[in-house]
Design brief:
Strand content of chain B: 15-25%
Strand content of chain A: 5-15%
Radius of gyration of chain A: 33 Å
Strand order of the largest sheet of chain A: 1-3-2
Structural class of chain A: mainly alpha
Chains: A mainly alpha (385), B alpha/beta (351), C mainly alpha (316)
Largest sheet of chain B: 8 strands, mixed
Number of strands of chain B: 12
Number of strands of chain A: 3
Number of helices of chain A: 14
Oligomer: heterotrimer
Largest sheet of chain A: 3 strands, antiparallel
Structural class of chain B: alpha/beta
Order of helices and strands of chain A: HHHHEEEHHHHHHHHHH
């Protein structure tokens, strides 16, 4: 405790004229707010960019989206071009192959070859052999496993390389992968967008009118919700066919229900809130209330939940492909590629690897991105460190 | 009287800040006070003045973004600010206990009341279940809960707000703590229950020989509870004195303002309200924090922080108005009249 | 409470009835007769089956007979392609146990692991442990179970040979379980992550509650207050997320079973759709619906049993 007596000289040395009452010419005003006010969107942006994982996720999504748009046009192949003489080719990118990293070198292991024939250039064209392993003697003949650059082995020039290899019909996996990613993304984004719109309308009507209308509408969603998603989606695709449109429709049938419920509960939450009541007593009209007060408050949850719905839709699409209800050939999607690659997994694992990596990255990124958005939009976390 | 003046808890120059996005909020800026054995010390101030933060620092339950910048909290010769989480286990409940502001959320909703009271007894005091139950029933009776046997096996949602606060008090009493901190114990309750709970606390304090720190923003509540009162403003104590001194001869303009804004039965004019808003604690003002809102502000108030001026052995106030060079300023008329009236009434009631 | 349960049961039956109806109509809307040439059935058998199930009569009548067969004779029709002329119900009866076995093991195996991870993450919130667990949670939730299945099959089945590549139908005892390890693992990642994520969020919130502060001020140690108040309170809603997860696992199992050639419901559904064995498909879809309806029902009922607030409220 700083006492006056403890330091009397110091305090008494303050000039006497300082001890004058401050003349106040006007009433004391409320102090000015000194910290800078941060607008809602800026706050969201600040908090989102602080979350490194979400920012990375957003970048990954962007890269995949760009590749999905431009990827298929980046080499000479078309997604439905078949080369029956070049099936199941290993991936090769000449620039990377020259680095000798052991990847993208078009390497393929030919098992149990006669050791003596290795130097035979009619069988093994010039420097196509990468590695010779597993020497053994079978019936007195020396056998080895020969890893060859399959392109050189078949005499295909470097400009005709399949960057990610080819599938069982000799189609380019790079082109098909991005074509497939494009299809998967379109299916996911379109279905989610439709779900948001339907859910928004439906939920607003239920929340706005309340009463009997609300009860009937909510009963309908309850009934819809009782149907298992897998069954509904499967049945629908079985009837409507396996086109892109019918898959999108199948992902709409009941997936809008959560959005509708959320919007409705937002309406109920804000209907009773003081500030809406205040706006009402000031004579603000209903439509203005909905669009200026209630819906903006629901933006955060809507954006967040739709971000998280995208990977769910991508998953559903690949699931359908796996159970044989995917897009029809020659059209492709990530799911279709996965289920085709699965069949030859043990012999040509690269045919699964690329679509698996892309779908995993997409799912992880969308989830991380959604989580980041959720935290950024959460009003209870505003301003927190 | 000797016993009364023996400090059981001393807080010295305590500074606590919170890290936030906008900067460091200096919630408590050098607080000194002591709690004598057996007394009730009230800490009064508006919300955000740092009173709850001070008590949370005493019990080591500050939130994670809080930093104790400097200062000491001395209890039984030990400095609690140096304590680790583990060291607090023997302090909390056993030595110092806390009653919360909001009894509605302070009880675990899915645990039976009885279990919540006996829990600490069984785990910390190693009582047997029967003993603990016996003690719990006694405690429930002490805090005025009818039919304790029935209530023992009920859940919090079956209790009213006042009943729940009684349970919280019972829990605070369970381990025979020597100091009880009441953090606005009646704010969340109905006015009708408030008085009852206050009486309860007062009675329990006498019976169990407790020392009490009573935190409130309501001077009316402390009037007949507290032995001494600390008035806090913007993270600092501005005036400290016995209950009598604060109510009958307040010296700090903020205390004047507080007292004038308190309604009583005789209030006929418009009630006084303190103009302006409390300062932003990220940028605490230079000089006296109250100067901006002070009708009696001196020039020096804006430049240098006032020291404490001693008015009596127990009464100190931090305002330049008490400096010999300061102009003579009388307290506002409303207050003067009120004090005179109170003195008269008291004289009458005694006479 | 009893009335509530009865109401819910009736609602369940009605929903099931609607699903059967929709499924039947869908199947009949598909081109071609249910039993037709091309499979392994002879023309005489086809005629006999078509006559037995009245597939030569108008669709309304067919529907009537179909319902009658189900409700009065427990006859779900005969398979056309997968196992020609074998009653559908018999096929299901053979297939259901293995699916349930794998799904239940992976679900119940996942719960303790997920709980430990979730508790660790909540207690060590914002430390490296939490960050690692939270990242793993996102990865596990994001990556579909069939990708895990593929990876496990390739690395632990094919490359290292630690476990059989596909399910061994003929094996018994340990060998059988060894061949079930990979599919169980593939299915377990998602529930592990979901339990962990849920418990982390719930526990972290509970830890911030006022009653945790009270528990602290009582003098309980960190461990005591965490276990007695934090964990206990977080567990209450846990049951409600675990039960619906069963439907989730079952969905993933559809594909994982095909990948590992497990003779369960999943593989059966894929096969029956691909070979247009319609009567079988309908029965399988009804089975999945039934499971999902039952889980929803159990969740609703369990709210009342676990939470004293609801339980006591119901009594009054």
């Amino acid at each position: 405790m700083t006492l006056y007596e403890d330091n009397k000289e110091l305090y008494d040395s303050i000039p006497a004229e300082k001890f004058k009452r401050v003349e106040r010419d006007e009433a004391i005003h409320d102090a000015k707010f000194q910290t800078k006010p941060i607008c809602f969107l800026k706050d969201v942006w600040l908090r989102f960019t602080k979350n490194k994982a979400s920012v990375c996720a957003a970048i990954v999504i962007l890269i995949i989206a760009v590749l999905a748009i431009f990827g298929p046009g980046m080499n000479r192949f078309k997604y439905d071009e078949q080369y029956p003489d070049r099936v199941n080719m290993p991936p090769k990118i000449p620039a990377i192959a020259n680095l000798n990293l052991g990847i993208f070198d078009g390497g393929y292991v030919l098992k149990n070859r006669q050791y003596d024939s290795i130097s035979d250039t009619t069988k093994y064209p010039n420097d196509c052999i990468i590695n010779v392993t597993n020497p053994q003697v079978v019936n007195g003949v020396r056998m080895v496993d020969v890893e060859v650059d399959y392109y050189k082995y078949l005499g295909i020039s470097d400009d005709e390389c399949y960057w990610f290899g080819s599938d069982y019909l000799g189609r380019d996996i790079w082109t098909r992968l991005w074509r497939g990613a494009r299809m998967s993304l379109i299916i996911a984004v379109v279905s989610v967008a439709c779900n948001v719109v339907i859910g928004l309308l439906y939920g607003s009507i239920a929340g706005y009118y309340g009463g009997t209308v609300d009860m009937i509408l909510m009963r309908i969603t309850e009934i819809l919700n009782a149907f298992p998603r897998i069954v509904i989606v499967t049945l629908f695709v079985m009837v409507a066919g396996t086109g892109m449109f019918s898959i999108i429709m199948a992902l709409i049938i009941k997936d809008w229900v959560p959005t509708a419920r959320m919007i409705r509960s937002q309406f109920y939450r804000f209907k009773g809130s003081e500030y809406v009541l205040a706006a009402r007593t000031l004579g603000v009209r209903d439509m203005a209330l909905i669009f200026r007060h209630i819906l903006p408050n629901s933006m955060g949850p809507i954006i967040t939940s739709s971000m998280i719905a995208v990977p769910t839709a991508i998953f559903a699409e690949s699931f359908l492909a796996y159970i044989g209800l995917g897009l029809q050939a020659p059209e492709t999607s990530i799911g279709v590629m996965l289920s085709q690659g699965q069949k030859v997994l043990l012999h040509y694992p690269t045919q699964v690897v690329f679509p698996a990596i892309v779908i995993s990255l997409l799912m992880i990124s969308f989830n991380l991105f959604g989580n980041g958005l959720r935290d950024a939009f959460d009003p209870t976390l505003r301003g927190a460190e | 009287m000797d016993k009364m003046n023996e400090p059981i808890l001393e807080v010295k120059n305590l500074r606590v800040s919170f890290k936030t996005y906008n900067g460091k909020v200096q919630a408590v800026r050098g607080v000194d006070f002591h709690l004598n054995k057996g007394e009730t010390l009230a800490i009064v101030g508006e919300s955000g003045s740092g009173k709850s933060v001070t008590t949370k620092a005493i019990l080591g339950i500050l939130s994670k973004n809080a930093i104790i910048e400097e200062g000491e909290i001395l209890y039984q010769g030990k400095d609690l600010t140096k304590f680790k989480e583990k060291d607090f286990y023997d302090i909390r409940g056993k030595e110092i206990s806390l009653i919360f502001q909001d009894p509605l959320s302070a009880l675990n909703p899915i645990m039976k009341i009885g279990k919540q009271i006996t829990e600490a007894l069984i785990l910390k005091e190693k009582m047997s279940k029967q003993e603990a139950k016996k003690r719990a029933l006694e405690l429930m009776k002490t805090v005025g809960i009818p039919q304790p046997e029935v209530r023992f096996n009920q859940y919090p949602f079956q209790f009213s707000g006042g009943m729940r606060q009684r349970i919280v008090i019972a829990i605070a009493l369970a381990s025979n703590a020597k100091i009880m901190i009441c953090d606005e114990p009646t704010t969340a309750l109905d006015v009708t229950i408030q008085a009852k709970i206050l009486d309860e606390i007062k009675e329990i304090k006498e019976k169990n020989d407790l020392s009490v720190i009573f935190i409130t923003h309501d001077l009316g509540v402390v009037a007949n509870m507290a032995d001494r009162i600390c008035v806090m403003y913007a993270g600092k104590i501005v005036e400290v004195g016995t209950s009598e001194e604060i109510f009958y001869s307040p010296a700090h303009p903020y205390t004047w303002a507080l007292l004038s804004s308190m309604p009583d039965l005789e209030t006929k004019d418009e009630l006084f309200s303190i103009p302006g808003t409390p300062p932003n604690m990220i940028f605490p003002p230079k000089g006296d924090a109250f100067a901006e809102r002070n009708q009696y502000a001196l020039e020096v108030d804006f430049e240098q922080e006032p020291p404490f001026f001693k008015l009596s052995d127990t009464h100190y106030a931090a305002t330049w108005l008490l400096h010999p060079n300061a102009p003579k300023v009388e307290m506002p008329d409303i207050l003067k009249n009120r004090i005179a009236r109170l003195r008269r009434e008291e004289a009458e009631s005694i006479g | 409470m009893v009335r509530y349960i009865i109401n819910r049961l009736i609602a369940l039956l009605i929903t099931l009835f609607i699903i059967i109806s929709i499924a039947f109509c869908v199947v009949r809307l598909m081109p071609g007769s249910v039993y037709e040439m091309g499979g392994d059935l002879s023309q005489t058998v086809i005629d006999a089956l078509n006559a037995k199930y009245h597939f030569n009569e108008p669709i309304i009548k067919q529907y009537g007979y179909y319902l009658e067969n189900i409700f009065f004779h427990w006859d779900w029709g005969n398979s056309a392609k997968i196992r020609p002329n074998v009653p559908v119900f018999e096929i299901l009866r053979d297939r259901i146990p293995i699916t349930l076995e794998i799904n239940l093991i992976s679900l119940f195996g996942a719960i303790p692991i997920g709980m430990v991870a979730g508790i660790l993450a909540a207690i060590k919130k914002n430390t490296i442990v939490d960050h690692i667990i939270s990242f793993m949670v996102v990865v596990f939730i994001s990556i579909p179970s069939f990708i895990f299945a593929t990876c496990l099959q390739y690395f632990f089945g094919f490359k290292t040979g630690s476990f059989p590549i596909i399910y061994d139908v003929s094996a018994t005892g340990t060998a059988r379980y060894a061949s079930m390890v990979l599919p169980i693992l593939a299915l377990a990642f998602d529930p592990i992550a979901r339990v962990a994520r849920y418990l982390r969020a719930e526990l972290a919130e509970t830890m911030n509650s006022e009653f945790m502060l009270l528990a602290k001020t009582k003098g309980l140690t960190y461990a005591q207050s965490t276990v007695r108040h934090g964990l206990r309170n977080s567990m209450v809603p846990l049951a409600n997320i675990i039960i619906p997860m069963f439907a989730n696992v079952l969905g993933g199992s559809l594909v994982v079973e095909t990948i590992f050639s497990i003779p369960g419901m999943g593989g059966l559904m894929v096969d029956s759709i691909n070979s247009s064995d319609h009567m079988l498909t309908v029965a399988i879809l009804v089975f999945y619906s039934l499971i999902s309806l039952i889980t929803i029902l159990i969740v609703d009922l369990s709210y009342g049993i676990i939470d004293p607030r609801v339980r006591m409220g119901g009594k009054k």
